[in-house]
Amino acid sequence: MMQLEDFEFVQLTKDTPLLPFVSEDEDLNNFLTEDAKNYSANLMAVTYLFIDKEKQKIAAYFSLLNDKMAYDPRERSIWNRINRLIPNQKRRRSYPSAKIGRLAVAKEYAHEGLGSQILDYIEYFLVTNPKLGCRFLTVDAYADATDFYRKNDFEYFTTLDTFDATRLMYFDLKPFKDNIEQGI
């Protein structure tokens, strides 16, 4: 099983050479080659690469951007469940979040656990290097990726998108942070 430590971690910049990358999803391939640098230049998202230095290939990448989880009166029961995670005096109509804009693993490295390791890395990164408040991690998961996110403890944020091409999902970072602080 491959480990993230086997790869070089690089933040994509306008000067970063794009090494070969091919995932099973053409949209994810195109984002990296056609859009990621522009998103970064326009302060819309930051993309990070895991590079296999030996093979001179990108093994995986993810992009992050700011987000918020906001109250929707049509989903009162889901919002109540989320609000119960927050102390009464801190409850609001929206909560700061980071969004996974894209997460992709190259075909050659697929099904080796890298995607789950990357989610753990993102969660760890957000709670141990806070640059701004961020309670939740969100993702608009492709319908065929929702099982992957559910296995990694993400929850559905709404039922309104049940039959859509993507599903809004979230992960509460506070218990993750608490576990790190307790050495669990």
3D architecture notes:
It is a single chain. With 184 residues, this protein is an alpha+beta fold. It has a single domain (4-181), classed as 3-Layer(aba) Sandwich (Aminopeptidase). The chain contains 5 helices and 7 strands. It has a 7-stranded mixed β-sheet with strand order 1-2-3-4-5-7-6, sandwiched between helices. α3 (114-128) packs across α5 (173-181). The longest helix has 16 residues, at 26-41. The two termini are 23 Å apart.
Average residue-wise pLDDT? 94
Low-confidence stretches: none
Q: SSE order, as H and E?
A: EHEEHEHEHEEH
Give the CATH class. Answer: Alpha Beta
Assembly status? single chain
Compute the CA-based radius of gyration. 17 Å
Looking at the overall shape, the CATH architecture is 3-Layer(aba) Sandwich
Span from first to last CA?
Answer: 23 Å
CATH topology: Aminopeptidase
Contiguous helical run count: 5
Shape: globular
Question: How much of the sequence is in beta strands?
Answer: 25-35%
Number of strands: 7
| Computed structural class | alpha+beta
State the share of residues found in helices, binned by percent.
25-40%
How would a crystallographer describe the biggest sheet?
7 strands, mixed
The tally of domains stands at 1
Short overview:
The chain is an alpha+beta fold and 184 residues long.
Key features of this structure:
Aminopeptidase; alpha+beta; 29% helix; 184 residues; 5 helices; globular
SSE topology sketch:
Layout: E1 8-11, H1 26-41, E2 46-52, E3 57-70, H2 76-83, E4 94-105, H3 114-128, E5 136-142, H4 146-151, E6 155-156, E7 166-172, H5 173-181
Parallel strand pairs: 4-5
Antiparallel strand pairs: 1-2, 2-3, 3-4, 5-7, 6-7
